[in-house]
Amino acid sequence: MTGMKSIPFTVAKNEHFFDRLGDYIGDVFYDILPEQGFEMRDEQIYMAFQLEQAFKNKKTIFAEAGVGTGKTIVYLLYAICYARYQRKPVIISCADETLIEQLVKEGGDIDKLEKALGLEVDVRLAKARENYLCMKKLDPLSEYTEDEEILDVYDSVPDFVFDQGISMQSFYPYGDRKDYPWLSDKQWEQIGWDPLKQCATCDFRHRSAQTLHRDYYRHAKDLIICSHDFYMEHVWTKESRIREGQLPLLPEASAVVFDEGHLLEFSAQKGLTYRFNYQNITNVLTGYQGQDVREESLQLAEDIMALHDDWFDYISEIAVRVEGSNRLEIPADTKMREMAVQLEKMVQELLEQLVFDAELFTMDAYHTKIIEEYLEFFTYGLSIFLKNDEGVYWLEEDGDESSLVIMPRLVEDVLREEVFQKNIPFIFSSATLSQDGDFSYIAKSLGVDAYDSFSVESPFDYEEVRTIKEYGYSNEAEKYQGIAKQLEDNKGHSLILFRSEEEMQGFRQWIEGQKWSFDFLFEGDKEISEIVRAFQFNKSSVLCAYHLWEGLDVPGEALTQVIIASLPYPPDDPVFKAKRKHAANAYDDVDLPYMQLRLKQGIGRLIRTEHDKGTVHIWKKA
């Protein structure tokens, strides 16, 4: 697509853009959309006026608007017009892939706007690396796997990926996780992006799925839609990528909209997290030992691997499992800390040896780059681990795999400096941003010092269309039997929200072997948008999930009952323990706000339009 798209209204030389924008928005909401069958709402008009001021004055605004206010249509209209006015795209950052799907799917909000206003919106998706195929993993796997579904993926890879002689002009994006909806999450892990693969020196680099998708979305004229995780990865890696001669993950934007903005803090923490897989350093250093290097370097690498194994074994020995979480708490321990200090010192020494060896010997550039980057990553993560009270750390176990995870405790200072100092509009949109109208908690946690804010309630008459019932239970079997009766009485048509994957799998085991008059769909069995689509069109099915407390938008008879399997308090894991430790009142300041926010979001999955009705069942431990 060539050329800049025009603003959808005229602006004379003696007129100001924002004056004409206000007139256009008024025409859209009072005349054009109602003529197309849209319902005009006072809450929507009020939100439009508030957002106009934020865009005009380049302010940060917290726009809290209840379900049914049409908030997405409002921010999309302003984003499209502002992008064309500034000749730079607006980035819309969503909580997860489910929310992205709601925006871009056929019949979604962008599609509705295009049809109603006669617009052609240039919208492109920017996804995290985990969503793209890795040929460095798929190519060798195809030689020996017997998994027909993975072989189907291999057969679908375009010819230009393997043919070095084909012109780059014939390249096109491929290899999106969404292109292979039949694969489970476990299958995708075998062929998706791998943090140990060095993309910068990969021989598939210029024809990889990740590279081609990035080149495509960077040229968006109107909107680039990404997840909060991806946006924060862009922020944290921007400077280092520029230093290395690479483009930042996202281009310069004229404005940023954070949909479900109350979840941005978690993505910011996640983006600064360091994850050390037990096997990674062994794999990296084994590659180093395969190079032509000095004997003392080989011995040092061997000593590091031995100490690292002992350190991990000791951490695994003292780690304490946390119920409802895959995070194992690591208690403060002098021996563990002393081993980490020694490990950091030895890895720093090996980094110096690597520079010396690279000058003395002909080392493979690909392996050298992997080793150097991983060792720098390893030592920086250890430095956070060893600083008192700056990091939060835990152990994760997945089958035979163990990983040490290190996360910064606070992110507001970095966000203040790297994000909110920019002189562009930042729009936070969600039904849940404040605590009883007070936005100071979210503003402080994100490093936002100056902001505007407003709240508008949902126009839906919840008392008429929604019933909320609460139940107590003393054990899981009692609860499951109660949930089963609720499902049968409603003949499916239900969403069950679980506090954790562990809780969901417990329910899954309980229902196995029993006869049901409807189908069960479980998060993780297929690509998430495929599961949501199946739920929407198989109107008597039951969707079981632990991530879909927000973002899921399934109106109509497919979803007439939401069952909340237990109150969504945060897990008693290291991240929330750190938050509680630094709170004046742990329950009131951390646990209760988190639970109430998530519960409110979960309840909000039921009523999506003025025609919806149904029941919410909430199960509480007696």
Automatic annotation (TrEMBL):
<feature type="domain" description="Helicase ATP-binding">
    <location>
        <begin position="30"/>
        <end position="340"/>
    </location>
</feature>
<dbReference type="InterPro" id="IPR045028">
    <property type="entry name" value="DinG/Rad3-like"/>
</dbReference>
<comment type="similarity">
    <text>Belongs to the helicase family. DinG subfamily.</text>
</comment>
<protein>
    <submittedName>
        <fullName>ATP-dependent DNA helicase</fullName>
    </submittedName>
</protein>
<dbReference type="InterPro" id="IPR006555">
    <property type="entry name" value="ATP-dep_Helicase_C"/>
</dbReference>
<keyword id="KW-0378">Hydrolase</keyword>
<dbReference type="InterPro" id="IPR027417">
    <property type="entry name" value="P-loop_NTPase"/>
</dbReference>
<keyword id="KW-0547">Nucleotide-binding</keyword>
<dbReference type="InterPro" id="IPR014013">
    <property type="entry name" value="Helic_SF1/SF2_ATP-bd_DinG/Rad3"/>
</dbReference>
<keyword id="KW-0067">ATP-binding</keyword>
<dbReference type="GO" id="GO:0004386">
    <property type="term" value="F:helicase activity"/>
</dbReference>
<dbReference type="Pfam" id="PF13307">
    <property type="entry name" value="Helicase_C_2"/>
</dbReference>
<keyword id="KW-0347">Helicase</keyword>
